[in-house]
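Known limitations

Structure tokens in this collection are predictions and should be treated as such. Users comparing against experimental data should check residue numbering before alignment. To illustrate the layout, the record for Glycosyltransferase is reproduced below. The input appears on top and the generated tokens appear beneath it.
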Amino acid sequence: MDEAKKKMAAQFGTIVQRGLYKEADEMLTELREEVNPEKYLSEDLCITAAFLYNKLGNRENELYYLNKGFLINPRSSSLFVSLGDYYSKVNTAQELICLYQAEYYAKKNGEMDQASFIKKIIDSLENGGITVPKTSIVILSFNTKDYLRQCLDSIKETIPLDRCQVIVVDNASTDGSLDYLKSLDWITLIENHENRGFPGGCNDGINAAEKDNDIYLLNSDTILPANALFWLKMGLYESDKVGSTGSITNYAANGQAVDVKANSVEEFIQFGEQVNIPGAFPYAFKPFLIGFSLLLKRTTLDIVGLLDERFNPGNSEDLDLGLRILKEEKLNLLCTNSFVFHYGNRSFAELLKSGQDYDDLLKKNCQKLIDKIGFDITRYFKDSLKIVDEIRAKRGTSLYILEVGSGIGTQAAVIRTKYPNAEYKGVEPNQTLASYAKAFGEILTGDLETTEFGEKYEGYFDYIILSDVLQFIHNPGKYLRSISKYLKKNGRLIISIPNIRYYEIIISLLADDRFTYSDDGIIKNGTVRFYTENEAARLISGSGYSIKNIKSVIGKKPSVEEEKYINNLSELFDQPDTDDLLALEYIFTAETIL
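Generated tokens:
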């Protein structure tokens, strides 16, 4: 049987060439039903299969075989031509990016006839008015010579230099970096005579870039696996709405680090080559992206401006830039199929040697950002997945979701990531916050209790999310009843409610005689009602809803002293279950009672 299947796979190309597409499809279907179908796959079979399904209009199967082909050979010029065919029907800019990469690999692999063939297709697209800007790579150098050498070697190995300008800004290094950089005739070198910091040095590089080029900010302590920049560029031209794209890595904050089991740099690079392949919508929406590997669309950068040098020597400038991009209703996309290896903070390690306190720098720059934008951004980075996980639907489902209390859009970003086909609408009374959230969908501003959506939206939404807003509503029962009309039949209401019985609140009240309002936490300024689990449940049930699930979100682990208080309270009130004291908030999921 195994030999028969191998023979079938060998005959597949001939069957497709004869135009017997139905028979070829049946053959592949039979092969895929095997326990280990990959053993029959080859680069040529995957290319032919992609051609077949392109002809049959089956984009899902076409992408499947492209994905398998790139796992076999991520440097195949023919696979990139096939990938261009895949995008040709939906996005000609992405088609052109694929062909540039195909031409690069054809030349690199010595396939000169193939390169000439690809160049003719490129010329046809460009003559038809399809254009994609080149890229200027901006790298900051400060006493990281050995890491910088690895970074530049990886650029030369994986990136078409005829489509990229490489700019290195040396910030007055003293480790011999400058002499090394002067020996390279393929880079543009900017020699600073003082340390201009990360924002300042990057701005020097951006100002030296060719004026129409997109800008790729890349840390000097990174190494690029094959196709890392290619997939960032593909993400950048996914739509006109995208303003920036960033990579996943082994070392970064902001949810950009992935758990990789690797024992060497080489194993990380191998992992990257297995990750940097085609996928169905391989993106995550983000409020901002970390600047270690950040591609910026030139047209967006021209609108939002350069990095803010008030954040020198560095930290928070990428967060500030991401927020400015959001404010222009552009998107920051994390490309989960662009892995870049990152040693991490090597230039800052050099600063620490000179006496710079890293934690102090973080605090100062965080405060600078708060002063600039007018609110504490960290309050809006809570774990949004806990609420979004209550949405029960498959990824490709076309959902209609309303969120009341959108904030800056952190939860909207998670929703748009998990459900790319969802239509998101939000309500946010704070116009400053709403100006960021509007990048993810239509945001209404105004009083929460009086906002109306009109008859058009009655029975419209699959889910309505109330994100920590019920405690600000003067008449919560009336409000809950009023919004029920906007839910579809069997639609669900998801409510997150802070728990006033949280142990920190009880201890603060009993032991310290404090019940302090603030801009953050459970006792927020403007709160008009407080809730326990039982009180919230009674309110929801009494407002025409049937509660389907209650989830506790556990707060930070109590100290030894705090545990004593909790145990004493448990004994005093004869309540052995202390879960309600450990719950920071509750998430209720409910349906309307018909």
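For this record: The longest strand covers residues 331-342. Residues 315 and 363 are 10 Å apart (CA to CA). Please report discrepancies through the issue tracker.
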